[in-house]
Design a protein that fits this description.
Blueprint lengths: L14 H15 L6 E2 L11 H13 L16 H13 L9 E4 L2 H7 L9 E6 L3 H9 L3 E6 L18 E5 L11 H13 L3 E5 L25 E6 H5 L7 E4 L5 E2 L2 E2 H12 L5 H11 L1 H27 L4 E3 L5 E5 L6 H12 L1 E2 L1 E2 L10 E5 L4 H12 L3 H5 L3
Helix pairs in contact: 2-9, 3-9, 10-12
Bound molecules: pyridoxal-5'-phosphate.
């Protein structure tokens, strides 16, 4: 038996599994200590009533022979693809249902899109970024280049014309830094992609958190993107679907590579390797896009953003530098006294029971930074904010 040698090149543990393991060990050693989790990617608000009612109704339909649904449209039911197009229309972006592919999660979509491109493709990844971009590229055997996010460029790396790449991954708002590209910056990426005949894979999983209407929420707000970009989005963070699972990919029919339609090839791939998203889930997803559903899910987004405001304010009062958290559910903190990420993570855990995410886990450019997630309950965030406000970093750094 021979292994795929690319999979053996991965780090032993996925970042969040590593954090969970360290927290578990700590809990076992200190069962009396309260843990305040600001480290996780997962949401805590329950499903919106409109969503849960639509799924319950769909489950009832399924026990009636006349209304039962078996295999559905692999691309996604038309009612949901139309609802997604309506969502884009509100952003003044014209997307046709034919260009939308519904699926079971942005993580799987990111991994599956690797099927479209040659194994020897070069990919340009932002650093730091969501680890799945890197890990799936390693597993696919890609040559990987990094565009570096720094404090100086606001963690928004820009293209360098001297570097050639075939694939470009962008994530805006960014996980972990919370940084958001402006229209002009995305326009520069689109122009670079055209100049290099490259394809942009644009992860918009956090677009619902953008509070400033001047900032772009979709790559397709940018002229020329329909011939060089694929967009991924998910209901996980927009509507609390982390446990329900539903996402979508937009592969415009105008997008080609080597004279072939990527839309057709993606359809071919999906019909072979996927059998469609659960009907019940798709009914729930469509309800999230209804006017009432949108009112309800936006309240939850607002709730998480108020959490982000609490975290940011607390950290500023304690005298540290942060970015993000204004248009994203993540606050990105520079560790004081040049502490390394895992050391700072360990100090907060040991002394305050606060769980964060070490920035270095998102790429070497994240070394010396920590990510705080605002997806916790208000009670947990308020307790953590109270501790963070009073944090004496001078004292704490002595233990590092
Ligand atoms: N993309 C980014 C940037 C994410 O942060 C996440 C989840 O944390 C995902 C994609 C995965 O989303 P899903 O739950 O749809 O798989």
């Amino acid at each position: 038996m021979q292994l795929n040698e690319n999979i053996t090149k991965l780090e032993q543990n996925y970042l969040f599994a590593e954090i969970a393991m360290r927290v578990r060990h700590y809990k076992e050693a200190h069962p009396e200590k309260e843990m305040l989790s600001l480290g996780i990617n997962d949401v805590t608000r329950p499903l919106a009533p409109a969503v849960s009612e639509a799924m319950a109704e769909a489950a009832h339909e399924m026990r009636d022979a006349a209304r039962f649904h078996g295999y559905g449209d692999v691309q996604g039911e038309l009612f949901l693809r139309q609802a997604i197009c309506g969502y884009y229309r509100a952003l003044k972006v014209s997307i046709e249902p034919e260009d939308v592919f519904v699926s079971d999660g942005a993580k799987s979509d990111l991994a599956n899109l690797c099927d479209l491109f040659a194994p020897q493709s070069t990919v340009l990844l932002p650093n730091p970024v969501y680890p799945v971009f890197y890990d799936t590229s390693v597993m696919a055997g890609r040559r990987i280049l990094f565009s570096r996010g720094t404090k100086e460029n606001g963690f928004l790396p820009m293209p360098d014309d001297h570097i050639h790449t075939d694939l470009i991954y962008l994530c805006s708002p960014n996980n972990p830094t919370g940084a958001v590209y402006t229209r002009a910056q995305l326009q520069a990426w689109v122009e670079y992609a055209h100049a290099h005949h490259a394809c942009i894979i644009y992860d918009a999983a956090y677009e619902a958190y953008i509070r400033n209407a001047a900032l772009p929420r979709s790559i397709f707000e940018i002229a020329g993107a329909e011939t060089c970009a694929i967009e991924i989005n998910s209901l996980s963070k927009m509507a609390g679907f982390t446990g329900v699972r539903c996402s979508w990919v937009i592969v415009p029919r105008a997008l080609t590579a080597e004279g072939q339609s990527l839309h057709k090839l993606w359809m071919r791939r999906q019909t072979t390797k996927y059998n469609g998203t659960s009907y019940i889930v798709q009914r729930g997803a469509a309800a999230a896009f209804s006017p009432e559903g949108q009112r309800q899910v936006r309240r939850d987004v607002q709730y998480y953003m108020e959490n982000a405001d609490l975290i940011r304010t607390a950290l500023h009062r304690s005298g540290v530098f942060t970015t993000g958290g204004e248009h994203a559910p993540y606050v990105w903190m520079e560790c004081p006294y040049h502490m390394r990420s895992w050391d700072c993570f360990a100090l907060l855990l040991r002394h305050y029971g606060i769980v964060s995410s070490p920035g270095v886990g998102f790429g070497e450019q994240g070394e010396g930074w920590l990510r705080f997630s605002s997806f916790g309950s208000r009670e947990v965030i308020e307790k953590a904010a109270h501790l963070l406000t009073a944090m004496d970093w001078d004292q704490l750094a002595l233990f590092a």
